[in-house]
Amino acid sequence: MKTNKKYSLLLALIIGMTTNLEAQNFKYGVNAGTNFSVQSETGDLYNNDDIKQGWHAGIYVNYFLTENLSLQAELNYDQKGSENDNISSNYEYITIPLLAKWSLGKSNITPLNFNFYAGSYFGILAGAKRNLKNIENTETIDIKSNSESNEFGLLGGIGISYPIKSSSILLDFRIGLGLNSFDKSDNQIRNKYFGINLGYEF
Predict the structure, then answer these.
(1) What is the pTM of this model?
(2) Would the pLDDT of 4 be above 80?
(3) Which class would CATH give 2-201?
(4) How does pLDDT run across 18-55, given as a tens digit for each residue?
């Protein structure tokens, strides 16, 4: 609980600070898209067949330290889990990523602006359910009490923006890796996901 408060206060502080800065120093935006997630051991990179498709939506504030380097704080809703023919695990998180972002800058060749980013995230579990499928019906079990309430992880990706006057349309590709287990009964498995998002930056 104390950790949740610390991250919430940190995000509020970042947003509060940006409201007092000159407009050219920061931008904010919204994005939404889809996550393709698996749940397996950290080193298990080649045997991830139980891919589950979920949703992502969020808002962010981007503070520019220089013309190319910025710090980005986000507040997101993320669906993660795994799925096969018989079992579907559904985890919902409120995540707070803190990212360092590097832009390649404007080009005379194309109006597109490419960027790279990396950082960490803190997740708060909002809900967890497991669907058990059989021939006749599907049984849903609430597993939130058996799941860890918080998740820490690493996040990185690339983005493409297309300017429209003072705003931009964004396309974002990201990869997330949980550093702690989400399951209280198994401390080896982690959430891993690949996300594709569309956004609008004001």
Answers:
(1) 0.86
(2) no
(3) mainly beta
(4) 455 455 688 999 999 999 999 999 878 666 678 999 99
- 3-state class of 143 per DSSP? coil
Tell me how far apart the alpha carbons of residues 22 and 26 are, in angstroms, rounded to a whole number.
8
Strands 189-201 and 167-178, how do they pair? antiparallel
Q: Are the beta carbons of 91 and 189 closer than 8 angstroms? A: no
What is residue 166's DSSP assignment? T
Q: Is 2 helix (H, G, I), strand (E, B) or coil?
A: helix
Q: Work out the burial of residue 93: count CB atoms within 10 Å of its CB; fewer than 13 is exposed, 13-18 middle, 19 or more buried.
A: buried
Per the structure block, which two tokens stand in for 166? 């003072």
Collapsing DSSP states into helix, strand and coil, what is residue 56?
strand
Closest CA to 157 of 139, 140, 170: 170
- The H or E element containing residue 75 is strand 69-83
Q: Which residues pair with 140 in a beta bridge?
A: 131
What letter would DSSP give residue 43? T
What is the Cα–Cα distance from 175 to 134, expressed in whole angstroms?
32
